[in-house]
Amino acid sequence: MENRREEKVENGNDESGEDEKMDLEDEKKRKKEEEGELSVERIFEKKEVPSWKKQLTVRAFAVSLGLSVMFSFIVMKLNLTTGIIPSLNVSAGLLGFFFVKSWTKMLHKSGLLNQPFTRQENTVIQTCVVASAGIAFSGGFGSYLFAMSERVAKQSVEGNESLEFKNPALGWMIGFLFIVSFLGLFSVVPLRKIMIIDFKLTYPSGTATAHLINSFHTPEGAKLAKKQVRELGKFFSFSFLWGFFQWFFTAGDNCGFANFPTLGLKAYEYRFFFDFSATYVGVGMICPHIINVSLLIGGILSWGIMWPLIESRKGDWYPADSSASSLHGLEGYKVFIAIAMILGDGLYNFFKVVSRTLMALFYQLRDRDANTNGLPVAVGSPSLSYDSQRRTQLFLKDQIPTWFAIGGYVTTAVISIATLPHMFHQLKWYYILVLYIFAPTLAFCNAYGCGLTDWSLASTYGKLAIFTIGAWAGASNGGLLAGLTACGVMLNIVSTASDLMQDFKTGYLTMASPRSMFVSQVVGTAMGCVISPCVFWLFYKAFPDLGISGSEYPAPFAILYHNMAKLGVEGVSTLPKNCLVLSCLFFVLAIVINLVRDALGKRAWFIPIPMAMAIPFYLGSYFAIDMCVGSLILYVWQRIDRSKADAFGPAVASGLICGDGIWTLPNSILALAGIKPPICMKFLSRGTNTKIDKFLQSSKVLN
């Protein structure tokens, strides 16, 4: 959801008592490292670190290309169904290790192996794959980009309103992504030393990925990785075959296991059912329990209580003759109350992270000046552990020139300013110039905040661009499309900036060169700029109801982003009666819930997360039930055997997600070829079934 929008762990920088404890623990760890304990780099000290050019191997990019295609299908499916995207770093690192290790083992037996497989090469693969698959999210195929389409626009148009749209086309989508996806990489490159070495930012996801990759390349870790891959393969096969089996029963609308009324037909009517999705059971196993519970609470609050109550006010709160998709009817309440909660949560976290970022930056600079008179700690300083000395030495060795980063940013910005107005005539050149002036500062804030909290606010920056540029352009000058395009520009810059800094942290801890990390990110981004539009195009052509509410791929965030842009240029006068009041209430509620969560600290484990609560407001609870089933499976497994669950849980979840995700490729090909399933499995009430039986019997008599 909104860029892998999972519950993140706060670092608690504002609690001095906890900081002192953490400092003591860090000091103990450092001393143990000096004594030879807990030192990762002592395990690898006899292995030569390859040069940055040797880390960039043909086999690494070949494996990255194959995995990029696979993960792009997975992310695209998640994008177009619910928008909830878990972190796939573990899967990318594990599969990259497995494929290259198998390849090198085979070459070693044949005597043709020229270069062994290293953890640095493993890091290059993981970085390239995640960068490529990340474009499937930041490219906006389930949000701002698809929100421009006629298919989505028609769902928001009332009466004689004029349509403002730009339909997807493979050519302009690839061109647009190549223009906007590289700016973020250049914007933070000069700050890598400050972020990683001087400020020692945590970057939890990058750190966790590095520890995983380091463990793979130890004898014990390699054995565990083989077992994990075996489990992943089992559940990949099961998930793929389960998707294939389900296909046979989906010959018509609302057919198959995905429409099984597990909780009864009335509950099914309000989207409470288990849809047998292996993908979302797997996602539920990866996402924290509180995310899954928050989704379910949001579904119960909206579809179980609010929508039936508002529906009973039909004719008063909204016109009785409004269509199911009309934003002047019940659909308007669903869309705008969800938007209000998302904006409330996003803005609260935006100001929280920015304020913490500025405070932490102030203290970091103050402490550094006090301790070192403004000078960084020397590489050979005795205050550095053995691991830190080795890693810092290599990290500073392969510099990326500042002139290269600045020149790359300016050149890419000029090209973008010159070309984007020709693609989107509504987006004037001076709008883009203003975005690019502020973008480096916002990219730094996002990258720094992500290092502190692991929370990327890329989608929030994108939403701010929708409202500011949309309002600046105005409705009469194409403000809707201008706002959505500006959202894409800003989201891509800040998203790739934080991703690159995460990768620098991973590279620092695995002793991969910053240059190889940067090149891998660039290559992965370039792959994604081609792969992701092609994957989306396959979905777009194969499924004519893509983006339609209630379909297999409703693309919920596309309609939400379109209506945000519409709200930004038209104002609130078009909302149905009482919708504005309820939206304001839920906007405030999202802020209050976040305040309570932050006030309670670690005791807030039972308080739901507003962003997660908002998603089922529009979609329903069916996927939340799937995710809660996944969460329950993991919880029971942990109670029975925690060590085994922790070791193999992510592999099992990744297998379920990958198998079902890859099934979408043959499913799309079958749809394009016009091959339809042979059976329609539908579920009817007893009364409806009796009527159909009577009708069929009367038809036989007449014949």
TrEMBL record:
Pfam families: OPT
EC numbers on record: 5.3.1.6
Gene Ontology MF terms in the entry: oligopeptide transmembrane transporter activity; ribose-5-phosphate isomerase activity
UniProt feature coiled coil, ranges: none
Keyword line: Isomerase, Membrane, Transmembrane, Transmembrane helix, Transport
Transmembrane domains' residue ranges: 56-78, 84-103, 124-149, 169-191, 232-250, 270-286, 293-310, 330-351, 400-423, 429-448, 518-540, 575-596, 617-637
Region span, Disordered: 1-37
Compartmental location: Membrane
Origin: domain of life: Eukaryota
GO cellular component, one term: membrane
Keyword Endoplasmic reticulum: no
GTP-binding found in the keyword field: no
Protein name: Putative metal-nicotianamine transporter YSL7
Organism (species): Davidia involucrata (Dove tree)
Organismal lineage: Eukaryota, Viridiplantae, Streptophyta, Embryophyta, Tracheophyta
